[in-house]
Amino acid sequence: MAPLPDADPPPARRVDPRVVHTRQVVIDAVADLLSTDGLAQLTMDAIAARSGVARSTIYRHWPDRVELMVDVFESVSSVADPLDPCGPLHADLRATGDSLARGLTEHRWGLILSCLVGTAGHDDEIHRALNTFGRARRAESAEIFSRAMERGEIGSDIDPVCEAERFAGPFFLRRLVTADTLDADFVEAQVRATCRALGAPYEHPPAV
């Protein structure tokens, strides 16, 4: 008996554009509230009033605050410059540092992060949301070091995630604790120090 032909895969489920619009309206409302009023004023009533979306609809899309916060972080951070690590390491780190510095000081996600990070220590939901968001971002940054390992620029025994955290940590320290500037000189100092610590080639940025 001849085998039956493979069945065609089911068609992809079409996403209702009204649902997409509603979710984005709520996300934008939450981002606006966090940017202007802070976390203390972020209530479901305030979100419903700012967005014009009913509380019941908001709860249907986001059963808990963690899921909503993660989506807000993802949305506001999407304005950051996309990373495409292609080497050499010092150039990738420079692009990453420039993007991170701009994001923390000029984009809305930096302001929102400043608003929430102090709350994460005593608010489990915010802590989980930041942790979920942070894991994804660390994985992206770690790719820079993984590719440098593949190119032979750095040793094969390093931990890419740890190196990504070590590179980014001073940026967040300056933005969230010391309030020092995140200027081009600071970014370049971080690039140079990281390359030297890992034994990677370093070149000064091209003159503008």
Number of strands: 0
The helix/strand class is mainly alpha
Low-confidence spans:
none
CATH superfamily of the largest domain: Tetracycline Repressor, domain 2
Q: Total number of helical segments?
A: 9
Mean of the pLDDT scores? 85
Would you state the CATH class of the largest domain? Mainly Alpha
| Coarse shape | elongated
- Biggest sheet overview: none
CATH architecture of the largest domain: Orthogonal Bundle
Integer-rounded radius of gyration: 21 Å
Count of the separate structural domains: 2
Distance between the termini: 73 Å
How large a portion of the residues is in β-strands, by DSSP E? Answer: under 5%
CATH topology of the largest domain: Tetracycline Repressor, domain 2
Fold and architecture overview:
The chain is mainly α and 208 residues long. The protein folds into 2 domains: 17-63, Homeodomain-like (Arc Repressor Mutant, subunit A); 77-198, Tetracycline Repressor, domain 2. It is built from 9 helices and no strands. It has helices at residues 17-36, 44-51, 55-61, 65-77, 89-105, 108-117, 124-151, 160-178, 184-198. Helix 5 packs antiparallel against helix 9 (184-198). The chain is elongated and about 55 Å long.
